[in-house]
Task: structure prediction
Amino acid sequence: MAMSPRNRLIVTIAAAAFVVIALIALLVYPQVRQLALLNSEVGVASAQADVAKSQLEQRSGFKDRAVETNAKWLRLMNQVPDSPDLPSLIIELQDVAFKSGVQLVSVTPAQPAPKDAYVLVPVGVEILGTWSDTVDYMQALVKLDRGIRPMDASAVVLKSGDEIARRNSSLAPYSVRTMINLEAYLIPEVSTPAQ
Result:
């Protein structure tokens, strides 16, 4: 029995549709799956790149903070050296005295006293000058690069008949003799045990 042209057309369309569906199933669907897999891999790689970028920013921040910490450490080591270095301390005290307009009469260090993490070096300082110059000297002491702390001070007004006033004719009237007790600090070097 022969097929009518209409049925032949329906069979041809159905066969063509089957071939197209088969081609889509065999050729396009694997490519769509491959594309989905690649999109997933791109997402994972993008997330890994974001994590790596974040870690790089953190490490860069650590590096910047390390530089800042090293600078602070160096400033601290200048303020609190690892040895008494009394000659440089005396020079600093003399420079401050000169700038303040007082005469540095004496600097008397005492025996260092070890503490838990540092060593305390008591220092007695005697100066001569006017009240205002003495106050300037005391204020300048706390601004020194070296870590020192004025603990106490006592001042005596010099009278024209005092021996010190007679010896120092350049002193202004109503000058004072001031005794200052300072504390200088140092951090001893820590010896590493032999391995």
Summary: The radius of gyration is 43 Å.
